[in-house]
Write a structure and sequence with these properties.
The chain has 143 residues and is mainly alpha-helical. It is built from eight helices and no strands. The longest helix is centred in the N-terminal third of the chain and has 17 residues. The protein is globular.
């Protein structure tokens, strides 16, 4: 059942992304995620999951982990409506030459969902963040 729910969620992200092309005008999602500290814990959990995910961890072998964590926290914070500024590369530039496909992208999303589940983030809140992030899916997937 959980796998079916995830497939439905992942399939719905494209539809949700159409509604989420600009960062939110309020900080309710940012607060629901636990503000910067909560987002930091979510990202760290996701990166631990990625490190143990043989389907995608090769894409992160030559990445400086502290910088990656910090830029992901910034990105998630901005997308959640927090008081942050994203200072990293564009997603297209950051993923250039990696040939990331849909299955790999979905695996990363599942690692993120697992991290949010482990921190007790309600599904509705998860869906709000995932919808925000899905808007830039095309910048990552190049296959």
């Amino acid at each position: 059942m959980r796998t079916s729910l995830r497939c439905l969620l992942l399939g719905s992200l494209a539809l949700l992304a159409a509604c989420a092309t600009q960062p939110p005008k309020d900080d309710s999602l940012y607060r629901a995620l636990g503000e910067r500290e909560g987002i930091n814990r979510i990202v760290e959990g996701m990166l631990i999951n990625v490190a143990h995910d043989p389907g995608i961890n090769r894409h992160f072998q030559h990445v400086e982990p502290i910088r990656l964590r910090d830029k992901l926290v910034e990105k998630f914070c901005v997308e959640a409506g927090g008081p942050c500024t994203y200072t990293g590369d564009s997603l297209a530039e950051a993923h250039k030459g990696q040939n990331i496909g849909t299955a790999e992208f979905n695996a990363l999303v599942e690692d993120l969902i697992d991290s949010m589940d482990a921190r007790g983030i309600p599904v509705a809140t998860q869906n709000r963040l995932l919808a925000r992030l899905a808007a830039e899916r095309g910048e990552v997937i190049k296959k």
